[in-house]
Queue: 2 jobs
Job 1
Amino acid sequence: MMEEIQSKQERSRKFETEVIHSGYDALKHFGSLAPPIFQTSTFVFPDAQSGERRFAGEEEGYIYSRLQNPTVEMLEQRIAALEKAEKGLAFGSGMAAVSAVLMGMVKTGDHILCSEGVYGCTFGLLHFMQERFGVSHSFQSMDGEEQIRAAIRPETALIYVESPINPTMKLVDLKLVAEIAKEFGIPVVVDNTFSSPYLQRPLELGCDVVIHSATKYLCGHGDVIGGLAAGSKELMSHLSMTTQKDIGGVMSPFDAWLLLRGMKTLPVRMDRHCSNAAELAKQLRKHPRISKVLFPGDPEFAQYTLASRQMDGPGGLISFEICGTKEDAQRFMNALELIKIAVSLGDAETLIQHPATMTHAVVPPEDRAAMGISETLLRLSVGLEAWQDIWADIEQALNT
Ligand code: 4LM
């Protein structure tokens, strides 16, 4: 136990340094402490032959910002360092990253095995791929070895999981899934948005690709829509030359710069998100008008042992059910004063949303029920304010 704590501390010390310095060398940029924003669409070739060689991949050098941009590359190198990957890729949104990875890794006739739930737009994309491109999928709780094995079909080409799952907070044992997938030669893709690499690094557990909606904790300030993916050099290069380049959902240099800036404070922000959420979960659990609390840091959480082993902290998201009906849940939201009603998560401001009518409204009611999303479930993205103020707001709204 002591060794485990020590190694967690060492890892986070290194992480705290890397998140500030990786991907950028000031002395290569006139000593500018802040990274320059290369706000350009295209790059000038010294002569026609050089242009020809660059297009043929025979000469190093930039061509066009949909293919590569120096500021965006700094961010790609940073996420690779943090996720312990060989190579990172940046996209214009989390969904651009999800779609580029999925479309780049499967083909017609393949099957994608998914965790018991996924973000609503990922659900929509999976259905679109099924209807238009003949790529099937199934959702599966992955609680045990036998369950995972039984869900793998001959045509399963990819395993796609969120952990924790949005918004039910259920966890997937990433090491177990990766071990079984290896036996079958199936790659495992993990959407690591809810944890951020500060709390969970799926590649270290044997998974193959990590995806982030960088819009969330990595940005941390609610002012960027962005996505990231990281994995082996071979796979990321394949994606970069196919679905990233040709579908073209790339990130702008300015958004990459905002992310490079926001990410520097990820560890300090995340520690505060985690401690605030832990205090609030305790209060919510005690309140008579709350019927269920879903928070990986709660000792009564069904997968508390797995959370303690797999994650370096519980994260800043709490889902809870309030007693009553959907209308009661909406009345409670409307009575909040400090907490903002908004989708998204990981910002300084505490946000609340109603998954059944917001992030997961596109999911049909029966699928929502199977995922564990009820009409009274609310998702709280705990911000960086004083937790006592957040609790006071929740308490007054519950009493209204
Ligand atoms: C939300 N989520 O939950 P972009 N993966 C996960 C996500 O939660 C999201 C995305 C991908 C929410 C947005 C409104 C686990 C988004 C998609 O929004 O495309 O950056 O990420 O509130």
Note: The CA atoms of residues 105 and 314 lie 31 Å apart.
Job 2
Amino acid sequence: MCGIVGYIGPREAVTVLLPALRRLEYRGYDSAGVATIHGKNLEVRKTAGKILQLEAILERSPVRGRVGIAHTRWATHGRPSDGNSHPHVDCASRLAIVHNGIIENYRELRKDLARDGHQFRSQTDTEVIAHLIERHRANGLAEGVRQAALQLQGAFAIACIAGDEPEVVVAVRRGSPPLVIGFGDSEVFLASDIPALLGETREIVVLEEGEMTVLTAKSVTLHTLDGHRVRRTHSIIPWDRDTAEKAGFPHSGFPHFMLKEIFEQPAAVRNTIRDRVDLEGGDIRIPEMGLTDRDLVGLNRLCFVACGTSLHAAMVGKYMVEAFARLPVEVDVASEFRYRKPVLDGRVLTVPISQSGETADTLAALREAREQGSRIVAVCNVLGSSVAREADGVLYTRAGIEIGVASTKAFTAQLTALFLLALKLGMARGFIDRALARHLTKGLWEVPDLMAGVLELNEEVEKVLAIGKVASRFAESKDFLYLGRGIHYPLALEGALKLKEISYIHAEGYPAGEMKHGPIALIDARMPVVAIAPKGPTYEKMAANIEEVKAREGIVIAVVTAGDGEVGGEADVVLPIPPAAHWLQPLLVAVPMQLLAYHIGVLKGCDVDQPRNLAKSVTVE
Ligand code: AGP
């Protein structure tokens, strides 16, 4: 989950590497470092902490050179420290490497290299790579990297430069850690992720697993690790820099990416619907799935696999698909999928859901399903990502780049995509006729405007939280309980996850009906309870649960349908959402869940865009 960047060209490398690295800081921020080549000398600067600390060091002691690599770290082996920061160098400090991933056999390699006299300076798994390349580079840097890569076990993306070969950057990839090459005018860029390249180029090539590349300012060559030349057409990225910067609409200059992306949800939902719905005819068109209606009728099961927020979207998707298409649905935590030995075949549609498309557990689950002959249609937000490339078809969410580690707009875009998938399945399988489809898609089409209304809560929420005893009670709270029923139960899980990852407060999402089977024991005057109780099939039961909480002095923050004075009257804090069809309410309920976590996080002075111990996409299993 580290971020790697590289550059070779006419400009001072550091002027390109630092801005690119900043756009990858959501991948990890335990330490940062850069290495460049000036003449035949390697210049390395690195430090524990954020890129800001590295910039301060570079102020005092700049690096020079037109070739360079840089790194932002999410520590796995060796605690965050200056010594464990990347880049790592060989014994003679002639070459430097940066690495994303995990080297599983680093202990035995380290012992073997130490026996050979190699001196180690860090506790990381990564440093063995520098010494291994040093051992094998008699026939040049590229061959040294290739030989080293053949000896490494695990998943890795590596970039390497050497003072005595000042005109090249060599990179290699095995397993899921991604690497993208960007093409400029007599300059070439390398990065772990597309956002880092925005503003420099939109022309890219994705380095596939088991491939390596040699970059010079004028050329790029790709080879497999067994030496076969690879030719690949360039792709054009549909995004531009602004979408990756804080310049947003309607309020320019958001204080945090998370808030900017919360406000981008109406557009994300609208974009995900666009040209997939015929509002007049009531038809749903998703050709990119690559499945005919006949294929959809032939299915006998659907299997969602995902992690984190995407898993919560999958849980909502289950309610929709089973109701609209009467197709049995399983939802699996991707990291657990392989351990249950799932029984799949060609009549099962496996749907991996992933914002980044690089989450290793979800990728592993996809491969497990493929091995068993299941059809694979991914729901993904990143063009050309590993999950998207390995699936048979992709239902892209069109949320744009999501920088904030806490997923927000990608979540509601996923709910939109799953609503369309469920409708498509329901129509193909004859459970939803055009009239009902027209009614449901019309409701979906109205969601962005309803969401814009909910976003106005933002000021309201801030005012309520900032004033009155409730706010302080929230910020001091050690625990929160989130309750929901039916399609809102996954939203309770999502609300709890947002609060946990943004404010470091322990929070649990629970099916409200389970309360009396245990968690009710936790309720007292210090326990805030977020109850999701909009009008609908679960309303009465939720109202009863809220009374149970109030009977034990609990603090109730209720998400209710606007104007509902009954449940609203019971609650300490009311977060209203506009009336909407039951199946569409999760798209509206998500917003107050996100805003609550965001404002409590800000109140507590947390870094809401880069929460501790977290990273945007988890590329190791
Ligand atoms: C959510 O806010 C978290 N960032 C995390 O749980 C995330 O949803 C999970 O890692 C899955 O990521 P993906 O959708 O990119 O696969």
Note: Confidence is low (pLDDT under 50) at residues 247-251, 461-465.
